[in-house]
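Blinded run. Sample ID left blank on purpose so nobody reads anything into the name before looking at the predicted structure. Input follows.
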Amino acid sequence: METKIIGNKIAEARKQLNMSQAQLAERLFISPQAVGKWERGESMPDITTFGRMAKILGVDLNYFSANGDQETDGKLAAYDEKLANGQQAAKGIQPETGWMKHDLSPELTTTTASGKALNSARDNKKRPVRNMSTNTWKDVDFSGLNNIRETVNAANFQNCKFLDSDLKGLVWKNDVLHHCDFSRSSLNLCRFQGSNLEGTRFNGCSLVEADFSSSTINKCNFEGADLTKAFFNFSTISGIRVQDALWSGTAFKDSQIEDIIFEGNLENCHFEKCGFKRVEFRNARLINTFFKYNNNLKKAVFTNCKVDSLTYAFLKSDKANVEGLTLIEDK
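Blinded prediction complete.
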């Protein structure tokens, strides 16, 4: 198939949805420049990317292969058959996106292109969900989900529920999690890598030793969550709610921390090479907590806080404003 014909088809389907090149690129986790090259006929998506793009644009794979050349038609038809049978579509790393491709299990709860759920996770408890990667999920109830061990890779979750689930050790890689609800779930040892979390609820969750790396965490709710030994690394954490959260051995490194109020006990915590913007420690008790090489820590506000002598020394050395701190006498 001529690359120019493919490009025109991509552009037509995208415009039918009033979707910009940038919006399509975001859904595919690639650059807008790559979409532009496809539509100008300068390059062509790989076969697996065609499959994901077809779901996003609400078209069948045959849409791209119609009037095309025999070789490309055959590849798309073979891939479409694999998708229909729920078999493994491909292996390895996609050249354009860097995703690891996963098997598409027939036991997986799926959605149509419009986002309407075909099945509910609750209705499939006897048939374990095997893989949720590279799909768009909207308004799906996965509550009570457990025994998921595969990586969830490059998936888009919008307003989905994971209430009271056991997702221990699950890896979320390059995923979008917007306005989802994980309340009361176990997310111990989970890893969120390169993911975008916005407006998502983790109320009462157990996040012991969870790892948030290279992720954006915006306006999420961690009230009452257990963040013991959780690690936030190379991430942007903004506007999160953390009332009654448990901070013990929690570490922040090379991250941007904005619009957050830390309360309660912070013990054996770690802040290193972080940026602080509109951050307040209010009615907090900081014990054996490490501060080093942070940016703008002096702008952080400490209101009615108590600290031990070691934490006080770290704060002074890192140029924090120690007003509002009361030193706890060493026993």
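Unblinding after everyone has recorded impressions. The first helix runs from residue 3 to 16.
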